[in-house]
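WP5 quarterly update. Target: 2-dehydro-3-deoxy-6-phosphogalactonate aldolase. Source organism: Falsiroseomonas bella. Length: 206 aa.
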Amino acid sequence: MDLKDWLARCPLVAILRGVRPAEVEAIGEALIAEGIAVIEVPLNSPDPLDSIGRLARRCGDRALVGAGTVLDPADCARIAEAGGRLVVTPHADPDVVRAAKAAGMLAVPGFFTPGEAFALLKAGADGLKLFPAEAASPAVLKALLAVLPKGTPILPVGGIEPGNMAPWRAAGAAGFGIGSAIYRPGDDAPTVAAKARALQGALAGA
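Structure tokens (predicted):
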């Protein structure tokens, strides 16, 4: 499936920053049970490739599993080898996008300006991460979508929680990357499940 197919299943990307390999499978199962279909393990988490591998083996085709905070193009091959199928960056680096695509993965790089967005799409990005969303607004997103190629999926990331999703969706957000509103280090699987339910409820209302 391509990125749009996964986002059609659920437009929320669970960002598990700080998750540990020993807990990641239970948390992944809790997320899937609540309908979350895209799970990202940032590379600045403990043993992230181990966590990605465990999730990929456990979840199979039930979820799109990948890595976030990918800064080095060389990491893309290692992520793919671990079983990851998604690369997310915090910054606009076309080299990481090209490396992710060469490794057969989906790429959702971070951007903040129209120039960055067009350069990343030219490099092969499957979607774009508007980051940090706290420094932008739904009006900014709407203006960007007016000039980018029709159908470009943009996911605001940063500060997204149940109370502020509706205006972003109305402006055209294809989905959201959700960090602390869905997982903080130390959260157990039931806690993550409860957060996911709250987000899903807010999404339905949006």
